[in-house]
Amino acid sequence: MNKKLIGILCAIGAAVCYGTNPLGALNLYAEGMNTPSVLFYRFGLAWVIIAVVMCVKALSHRESLRVTGRELRTLLTLGLLFIGSSLTLYLSFHHMPAGVASTILFTYPVMTFVIMIVFFRERIRWGMVLSIVLSLAGVLLLYWGDAGGTLSLLGVVLVLVSALTYALYIVVVDKSPLHMSSFKINFYVLFCCAAGMAFYALASGQRLMLPPTSTAWFWVGWLAVVPAIMALVMMVYAAKYLGSTPTAILGALEPTTAVLIGVLVFGEPFGPRLLVGILLILAAVVIVVLTHRNRNKTTI
Q1: Cα separation, 238 vs 249, whole angstroms
Q2: What is the pLDDT of residues 94-140, one digit of tens each?
Q3: Of 30, 59, 133, 273, which is most buried with the most CB atoms under 10 A?
Q4: Which pLDDT value is given to residue 81?
């Protein structure tokens, strides 16, 4: 019961933290930084912070940095999946409003649900189906509330690829044989992500740019700590304690966070559709929590 509660709280926290990605990314784009640079410094600074924590744990003999060959392959897979998800999402911000991109990204719970049913024969629970329907309806209302225009096809494809790779990341974390702390997992994942962004910048002919101002460094720090370290650490615990599908469904709070940031920070209009959409998503979150509480009560 305690682990389920921790899993629920971590899933909610991870979703809210990850939903702040546009806040940092758009401000850094406004400072003139390109996408590989934003992601390289986001992942690089996050890795440095995690590395300090892991060095302290290693020196106190609480946890070693050693991994087996099988574990290393799994960690590299997670790193590649997170590179794909982050890069395609951040590139999509150049082709559509970040709030719209964040709402489309929420297709990943459906993808997670389908993957778990097809490949792992997860039992279909109607509470989960209802929560997915409610949350998707809420996301559609959030999207329609952002004022029309034709979406970029490239932008939509980029976000859908981001959603698929994020769904796969959650499933791999849930089903992997990794028996180590979230910090140790992300020590290797973030290093892979930073190295991958450096390679991408080199391969695409884009130079890695230093943050030009103190404000830019602040937003780099924000991206490193909030939607990287905090979101990744909590997501690992959520997937392990709660499971892939409910973790993904609770991620409905991501687009909600993005919309609220748009309203409160950037002065975007807030109308009835936005309000109803947020309420539907919160209802989906409540259903997930109650479904798991009732499931635990019947198995004790």
Answers
A1: 11
A2: 988 787 788 788 888 878 888 888 888 878 778 878 888 888 888 77
A3: 273
A4: 96
